[in-house]
Amino acid sequence: MTRVLVVEDDQDLALALRTLLTRAGYEVLHADNGRDGLRLLFADRPALMLLDIGLPQLNGWEVLERTRDLSDLPVLLLTARGAETDRVRGLRAGADDYLPKPFGNDELLARVEALLRRTAPTRWAGDSFDNGLRLVPERRSAVWQGHEARLSDIEYRLLQILVRNRGRVITTDQLLDRVWDDPEGTGRERVKFAVLRLRRKLRQAAGDEAADPVEAVRGLGYRYSGDGDGEGP
């Protein structure tokens, strides 16, 4: 049975979500504050999280940030209707989708089903990605072919985003938006040089100047290939 974590402090809404999702065939976990939400997240490893922003103890932004440090779990953000800034901030911070309150039952179930359908199995900190890559969030580093490369925050975030989108080209503008919060696209050269540094560190760590899992796609952006045979920048 697919497990869904609901992190919501409104008890009436939480009960309604639990009832709706249970009737739809999901196993539902619930936390009414951010700290308990994180505990359940890493103890039970659900397939998807519904996350409210206005939570006690740790707010939704903090929960999302810590989740993204340790997992690529799909996250559906629950936001106040009309709060466009919250929705934009959530997507840039790594949420996969958002749903304004109040929402209809059918729409919520459709969004849950779509997220589960289009996402690969969740990766967790310490898990190995294909062909020998492992992210180490507590040290902001990556283990590539058995050798650890220490990364800057920017380099780590770049690699994390590319890995989460394995096989898909992520454009320079998308990386500017999601790593540097630069939606206007100014300073595109910074992406090029940050990726150069990232790839150089992975190659040097493995002792093989010809092998790294990041591929430059000319005129488009970058892709995590996972095969250690990326093209030159």
Automatic annotation (TrEMBL):
Modified-residue entries (4-aspartylphosphate), positions: 52
Pfam families on file: Response_reg, Trans_reg_C
SMART domains: REC (SM00448), Trans_reg_C (SM00862)
OmpR/PhoB-type domain location: 124-226
Domain Response regulatory: 3-116
Keywords: DNA-binding, Phosphoprotein, Transcription, Transcription regulation
Annotated CDD domains: REC_OmpR (cd17574), trans_reg_C (cd00383)
Start-end of DNA-binding region: 124-226
Protein name (database record): Response regulator transcription factor
